[in-house]
Amino acid sequence: MLMKRRVELYDTTLRDGSQMEGISFSLEDKLKITEKLDEFGIHYIEGGWPGSNPKDIQYFKAVRDLPLENAKIAAFGSTRRPRLRPEEDPNLNALVESEAPIATIFGKSWDLHVTEALRTTLENNIQMIIDSIEYLRDHGMVVFYDAEHFFDGYRENPEYAMKTIKAAEEAGAERIVLADTNGGSLPSFIKEVVEKVKEEVKTPLGIHAHNDSELAVANSLIAFEAGVVQIQGTINGYGERCGNANLISIIPALELKYGVEVVGKERLRKLKELAHFVAELANMEIPRNQPYVGDSAFAHKGGVHVSAVLKNPRTYEHIDPELVGNRRKVVVSELSGRSNLIYKAKELGIELEERDIKRIVEEIKKLEFEGYHFEAAEASLELLIERLRGRYKPFFELERARVITEIFQGQPPISEANVVVRVNSRRVHTTAEGNGPVNALDLALRKALTKFYPELKEIKLVDYKVRVLGSEKGTAAKVRVLVQTSDGKKTWGTVGASTNIIEASLNAIMESMEYWLMKEREKDEK
Amino acid sequence: MLMKRRVELYDTTLRDGSQMEGISFSLEDKLKITEKLDEFGIHYIEGGWPGSNPKDIQYFKAVRDLPLENAKIAAFGSTRRPRLRPEEDPNLNALVESEAPIATIFGKSWDLHVTEALRTTLENNIQMIIDSIEYLRDHGMVVFYDAEHFFDGYRENPEYAMKTIKAAEEAGAERIVLADTNGGSLPSFIKEVVEKVKEEVKTPLGIHAHNDSELAVANSLIAFEAGVVQIQGTINGYGERCGNANLISIIPALELKYGVEVVGKERLRKLKELAHFVAELANMEIPRNQPYVGDSAFAHKGGVHVSAVLKNPRTYEHIDPELVGNRRKVVVSELSGRSNLIYKAKELGIELEERDIKRIVEEIKKLEFEGYHFEAAEASLELLIERLRGRYKPFFELERARVITEIFQGQPPISEANVVVRVNSRRVHTTAEGNGPVNALDLALRKALTKFYPELKEIKLVDYKVRVLGSEKGTAAKVRVLVQTSDGKKTWGTVGASTNIIEASLNAIMESMEYWLMKEREKDEK
After folding, report:
1. Most buried among A368, B83, B233, B411, using CB within 10 Å?
2. What are the structural domain ranges in chain A?
């Protein structure tokens, strides 16, 4: 599909997005995000609601000094209060004082809201819309009218809903944005209503969808197909409750599926970067499975998929991951077979011989059945491959380990570990205390090994995760331990599994050290 | 909208869902999920791919003994290989040997796949579809035919795509499932294609959508509107890459927005419970903003919304949260702590006095800050409340506990625990060996306490979970242990938190016993 259509992107991450539980942007965050959105080619950036809090007033002052290239800044607010004249309304005056070129104001389209929430008459609500738009225009602002709850209102009283937006049109609003504020509308209903509105309203339309039914992206795209010009949304779909329409999914659909130029192909390659940048400032993690930009969005696990993707990526990829700045990822697991392993080994720089492949695949399947899991533990996978190929020469042997934890009533617990390690023909016995039994073991092992490999001081554990498998067996269940270790430059993952948490942890920790020593030796050999 | 339409739900969490990076279900997990899905009213449960791994073969054996009420079990596989006769094909024979009543097999609809991935002729592919379906039917199986990449295939070569499903129809497939395998299709295209297929194919249709474009729920609902009978998906949308269509969002849309009876209103109230149950076994967290079932799906922050919602919930809620087992959440200051506590205490049958409330709220806040979490540990909460009100009389005191784990090279690890417990003026010292340190402690503690409270033999740990908090501190991080205990009639949860996993576990285990003893004493006093 190739469309010569104009589309405007209107981002409200800084206003509606910041209503999400857990998000709280500082003024600096908001300015940084504004610059990034501008760079990326977003057309309108809603910076805040100056009438609602002092941080937003400051934002509108500060943003005037940003040298923006593409974006226009919009300030958000509402129509005047039922019993105030516009010039008396602090909310409208805050919009004017923001000096933003655009004011986006919301008003009521749903009769229920007018009578129950505003407690005024249907006629006065219409007058409020007209007065507010005219007042802002008289002060030189471009006005976008946001018809709150338009779809719910239309469902219950279509005549009245239509009347409110016609009033906005006559008062001079330059966009009329239809909002599915509660996020409850179905795509087919959105289509029907947008088409009806287009018959009666000439002003360019917008869509503002929420994700309460997991339909916000679809509803935005369907409204676009039905003739809407402006799409409102937020980065990563942040927003109150279940969030707003996710621009990070909408933009590539427009560019790559509808063939509409929105930000251009060059900028589109920074989509993943943009998503992660905003997530970072919002202190949120990007889910691995987030469409287009998650780390696993183009991950292939099933054996059938992998072999086909290697022959021709189109077979299992809806778009080329590089177009949105992402990349393909092949995952090795029990579900996969030969081709995943071969691909993965290549990534690790290992050329596998035919006679090794079968043995390694079988060993992986066996271990995964026992509770191992190599997806997040590629270092353990590499060690396994090297061991089975006979390429791994051990750096040390653990003869024995013991860890004791003692708890005395009313006192903090004590954990102490002993290990006996052999390196070549030397035998070392060390002991250490820790915060807990695993920490004690980690410390005792390091004490022993740094005598032979002092460079081990450079590495440290950065993440430690425990998962109980088949937990219905209570405390006799099996556990899997995942460890992430870093040398300050790179990070690698290892895994251990056992019914005994101490053994599982010890194995994962030992492998984290063995992996790093192996890599250091490889460097020396080059 | 009220529709008298038949809809079938086909769940593939155990097969397609388990392809998600990070998910690895044990055999027990798979059986438990099967029971839960059956209870919830899912019509078909795809249990696995018996031709691909040993765990799935075991599953199909074990599942025959489950007393299922609603669901039929399906085994997944593919059409025969290009150069094998059906009776020689190990994959088809694994389906027959699974003894599942239904075989769902996928075949190619996209000419590109036939020539590039399968490397065979378009004619042979048609023959493979026919042979495979006939072979499975001859062995008494009902066959669902999954037309892989149907939409992509149709886009490029509609005649051939249509030919493949007509062949499946003639060979006797009882459902033809149209798959958007790469998740790249737009809703309007899905609608167009389903309508075209319906004109030419009489067999009931299904839809199998993936979420690569954040459109899987919309595409499934739109296919339903266009006449599809079966909707395939997974719980919470788990699945490879960006996941499958999320049944947790599709089911309430069908029930509450289309007015179609799918699982019934009673079961729908367990939607949130189902979503969390599967997430727990998948070791995934439910995102707070997940539609319908996330903890914040009906959370209201800030003034306008809250006051309107309190006047009339419909103003900012698309459905009543209780219909899906969720609840409204008003995010306000510490006042919400108070009212939550009073509400919760009432549920537990405790009438709190004014002077206790403040102290308890503060203690809970302090403990939650330290890593405790009472949502899944109401027994610990109840003990806490009773302790702070001075109503709890202790049953025993732990004087000290010690646990030793020893690992000798090449031998299984040994864990041994000692505990000293005082009951009234008597002091008992016991020791026990276990599978791991926590199991050893649990056994030693029971040995000691059953001398005084022999009825403790009736209770047993049924679940044990460990979560590492602030895991970036490596093995010195804090851990939270959640324990579920059962007396065969009811199950209760307790929690412990510490930097020492042994201490955290011991506390959770002790509380599980204390809680039960307290409840037994209350019974006696009545």
Report:
1. B233
2. 8-263
